[in-house]
Design goal:
Elements (H helix, E strand, L loop, with lengths): L18 H15 L4 H23 L9 H13 L10 H20 L23 H10 L3 H13 L3 H5 L6 E4 L2 E7 L5 E6 L1 H14 L10 E5 L5 E3 L2 H15 L7 H14 L4 H8 L3 H7 L5 H13 L3
Antiparallel strand pairs: 1-2, 2-3, 4-5
């Protein structure tokens, strides 16, 4: 199929982009204007819309939103559920979910700008699974198994501050802030939004010592650097893949019997905060997450957790 200026496919009859292709392009432009990260656009929205949805529309001969009736969109979800992955197995419901959700969001946006939208693709129901978490004892074992102070501090930041992987690698020495006797970490989160994350005194001191130990022996201003030196003789910033590999290696050394990754540490921290009675709205602000995401964390808390929360609320003041 020929391509129009800007990468949009042309229709054979007119040489103009098909309306549904133009709609996807305009929606992705709107997402960029809202400040969504390049990673989110490319890996989630862009892939689902340009590599999954639009090819399906072309195979089905669908050119306009008016042709996307509920029955047609149900067929889109059904076709995905019957599709095989590269390993020859049916796509999981979780994978289909990630492909269908951006289409639903795009059609919701399209309706808001006056496009005739008559249906929404249904999201496949996913089985609710018990989410694994690490106990505080297991986190202590992880830190003990780490071989360097840098690695120990990284694990403690994930476990005590709930940072995302990209947020941790982006920390600079100047991001440690102090107010009176309290310390905070300035974190650069999703969508370039900044927030202050509380850091307990002992961890703040360890961050200070780590920054002083490195001194000017690092390239750039990143706090966490690789042990290898670059061409200029300075330590290069630690990469996300380097941190993830380190966490996995330390978990194997600690013999936890679990696949440990940075997001599991963040998830464990959020779970612990909820179990200790932190207000979900406050947790959302500290974690840089939406309240909807926080609400999902309640799903795996046990009945005992719920009982303890009620007991603290009703009996704590007596």
């Amino acid at each position: 199929m020929a391509r129009a200026a800007g990468g949009r496919p042309k229709t054979a009859a007119t040489g103009e982009p098909a309306p549904v292709d133009s709609l996807v392009s305009d929606y992705l432009t709107s997402c960029r204007a809202r400040g969504l990260s390049v990673r989110t656009l490319d890996n989630a929205y862009g892939f689902a819309l340009e590599r999954v949805f639009l090819p399906w529309c072309r195979r089905e001969g669908i050119r306009t939103t008016t042709e996307l009736s509920q029955l047609v969109l149900d067929r889109f979800t059904t076709d995905l559920l019957s599709r095989q992955s590269e390993r020859g197995r049916p796509l999981s419901k979780a994978s289909v979910h990630t492909y269908v959700r951006p289409v639903r969001q795009m059609l919701h946006w399209a309706e808001g700008i006056g496009e005739p939208v008559t249906g929404r693709p249904q999201l496949p129901k996913q089985p609710r699974r018990e989410k694994e978490v690490l106990s505080r004892h297991e986190i202590d074992r992880l830190e003990d198994a780490a071989r360097t102070e840098r690695d120990k501090v990284i694990i403690r930041l994930f476990a005590d501050c709930g940072l995302r992987l990209s947020e941790l690698t982006g920390i600079s020495a100047g991001d440690i802030r102090r107010t009176a006797n309290r310390s905070y970490l300035r974190v650069h989160g999703k969508g370039d939004r900044e927030r202050l994350v509380p850091v307990l005194p002992d961890l703040a001191r360890r961050l200070d010592r780590l920054g002083r130990a490195q001194g000017g022996d690092r390239a750039g201003d990143r706090l966490f650097t690789s042990s290898r030196r670059g061409s200029g003789g300075e330590h290069e910033p630690l990469t996300e893949s380097g941190v993830a590999q380190m966490v996995s290696a330390v978990a194997r050394e600690a013999q936890l019997g679990k696949a440990v990754h940075p997001h599991l540490l963040r998830h464990s921290w959020m779970t612990e905060m909820l179990r200790k009675g932190m207000n979900p709205i406050q947790l959302a602000a500290i974690a840089g997450a939406s309240e909807k995401v926080i609400a999902e964390h309640y799903a795996h808390l046990s009945q005992d957790d719920a009982y303890e929360a009620v007991a603290r609320a009703l009996l704590g003041s007596r």
